[in-house]
Amino acid sequence: MTPENDLRGRHGARRAIAVAVGRYRDPAFPALASPVEDAKAMERVLTDEDLGGFDSVRLLLDPSRAEAEVSIYEFFANADPDDFLFAYFSGHGFVDEHNRYFLVMADSDPRRAPLTAISAEWLADCLHGCPAGRVVVVLDCCYAGRFLASIRPRGDVERVVIVSTSAVQLAHEGAPGPAGPKPSVFGAAFFDGIASGAADFDGNGWTSVREAFDHAVEKVRTSGHEQTPKMAGTVTGDFWLSRSPRRTSGLPQEVANLVNSPNPRARLAVVDELVALLTEGGGVETAAAEAALVALRADQDEQVRLASRRALAGRSVAASLEPVSTASADPYWYRKAVFYEIRVRSFADGDGDGVGDLRGLTRRLDYLQWTGVDCLVLSSIFDSPLRDDGYDVSDFTAIHPGLGTIGDLVELVDEAHRRRMRVVLDLVVNHTSDHHRWFQESRAGREGPYADFYVWRDTAESDDLNLPASETASAQWRYDPRRRQYYWHRFQPHSPDLNFDNPAVQESMLKVVRYWLELGVDGFRLVAAPFLYEREGDGEGLSETHDYIRRIREEIDKVYPGRILITEVGSEPRGAAGYFGGPDEGRECHVVQYDSLVPRLLLAMSQENHTPLSEVLRQAPPLRPDCQWGLFLRNGNELSLTGIDQEARDRLLRAYAPSPGMRTSLGIRRRLAALLDNDRAHLELAFSLLLSMPGAPFIYYGDEIAMGDNLALSGNQSVRTPMQWTPDRNAGFSASEPERLALPVIMDSVYGYQATNVEAQRRSRSLLRFLRRLIEVRRLNPAFAEGEFRLVTTTNAAVLAFVRVHEGAHVLCVTNFSRHPQAARLDLRGYLGSIPTELLGGGRFLRVEEAMYPLTLSGHGYYWLSL
């Protein structure tokens, strides 16, 4: 939908209401000056024909509870499906002795809150029952974060709820000025960003609710107040709240003429002049130059878009181009994100040649936004001879021609950002392809700038770099007849290891990082990062390796704030935690995935005993606020079993890979659904754990619809088959002839695309809809992403229980690993008197009356319970 159509309310009405209470009869509630100013600010912005253009805006100033309830009920109930509603509440919030949350009205009595104030549950019911297709609710009140627990998602409508504080914070008034009272800290930031156009981060001439929120978050953060706004909801696109005022004044006339020229060459030429104004101009010129560059970033001409992107990269204005401002009050977005891992070659074919590509992926972004994922992790897309699925890179600054162009990537990133999603690229840092120009120059002779880019020696007789077969069977020295020396490769002979002892190699890889960050990508997953340096022994995780990762992190923190580094480590949590770095040594990766979790989870399932999983969870050390674990059930490689003992390995192979064709030298080459026999209860249990355990979940493409594998394909190709979109030819993946597909689609009776596809699962009570619901509930409950993790003692070894705790919110997660119903008692002595409430369905359980709380679960059952 275009913003213009959206601002016309999809042919429906655009209505708003503001409930502002600053005067109270009961002295327990101090008088407030800002709420009335908040309401007036909202009215000015939304009724302005050049901005919000709302059909009606009603102000309720200091209403009684009865007056407010009637007006609020009618506002929500008397709506049509095409309407766009905006509701703003400013005033005191109150929590009674039973931990219930209320909005305080003029006649509210704290001793009789249920009778005199508006309860969060009642307001949530109004929101839930409202027939309008799109609704935005903003609560600028103390403790407003408590309202988020009352929200119940509806899949047929779109809702956004914004709260100006967490569940335990106060909302702050604006400091009075010479002209009198001012709007609140949050209200002023929210509406000023719309009125000034400063919230129009992408420069497209329109301000969305998300942009207004992001602008307000940054302003609240810099105000110095302890106040953390939050936003939750379910949307399939942007809520276009208003137009943005044009910000073209301030440029010299000749520069403005070039910016607005119909000639793309003129617009390309003006980029350098705008950059000069950014560094040399005054305040007005600098702001106008920034606005012009932001506008050119969305230019129709590809060269103009790329030039303006590079001009903005690294500058403070570049931060505001991200889905959430990279300089925002929430720099830890990745802690709350749900990641989605994509093999681009297998996801969607945009040009009909049988190979997935970036354009095809861009066309499927609406689906990904619908599922609720926040960040896309793309398999290696760089130019490559494709002997190792693209991870043998021949040019780090070019995209493989079969996948598209740099312009296609820029379009993908832009479109993802418009949908509030991010894009992270896989970057191999350990080695290159032997086709890479660096290696061709290096093997040409022992002199020259690239002679020492790789690890060379005269003989392979020394075994100081030889590795045990359990680490990698292919690591060895290989003779190159042209240079007449041996080069080292840890992985494949066609992938020689870079020599990071050479400062030129270090700087060259930093240039690669800068290059793609300048084009707008949101970070990298550093592939094979633990193996950068070669020393005696296996060389994994050397101090020199950590030093170099810290150097990359310093560059990102300094020039590209808000971008992230991810790495995968084949060790237990204690060892993997070293890749976060530390405040004394320096920070390293933002997100660390550790391989040992999945085998332990599968062991727990096969043994019907939680101990293998709870032991590894217990080992995970506490993390700093800027760190997060990365959790996954499967990915595009084999399920490695090298980190477990032989007895456990044999048990897993018997249970999950009984046939030799299902195995590799390191583990198992099967997809998640095939590992779990396509059992719906098993799959739901696995995903419920993935989204509730401490860490950020990574979902491998196709697992959300229980795609299967093709064991007739070699190696890990078995789990890299085309995404199954529809029951049509080629599973809707490609319009090419079937024989031209790079990999065949799955056609068997269980996992074949005719039965297993996105189109069918979007219409039914499917695994896809179940997972989407889990993601929604996870987003509405920040304890899952950011909460402290506490194991809970149970009397049944088949039942795992733990609590996630965050800002006063407590969520109890209980899982039954047995196929049979199980009864257990949980040690909830710290929660006596609480009433567990199921988050997925809203059911209320018996009050916790005794320390050991009795609970019964169905076979492979689970609960997410709010305490």
UniProtKB/TrEMBL annotation:
Gene3D superfamilies: 3.40.50.1460, Glycosidases, Golgi alpha-mannosidase II, Oligo-1,6-glucosidase, Domain 2. The keyword Phosphoprotein does not apply. Keywords: Calcium, Isomerase, Metal-binding. It holds the Pfam family Peptidase_C14. Its EC number is 5.4.99.16. It comes from the Bacteria. InterPro entries: GH, GH13_cat_dom, Glyco_hydro_b, Malt_amylase-like_C, O16G_dom_2, Pept_C14_caspase, TreS/a-amylase_N. The keyword Transcription does not apply. It catalyses: D-maltose = alpha,alpha-trehalose. Residues 341-740 form the Glycosyl hydrolase family 13 catalytic domain. Belongs to the glycosyl hydrolase 13 family. TreS subfamily. PANTHER family: ALPHA-AMYLASE FAMILY MEMBER, MALTOSE ALPHA-D-GLUCOSYLTRANSFERASE. This is maltose alpha-D-glucosyltransferase. The lineage of its organism: Bacteria, Bacillati, Actinomycetota, Actinomycetes, Streptosporangiales.
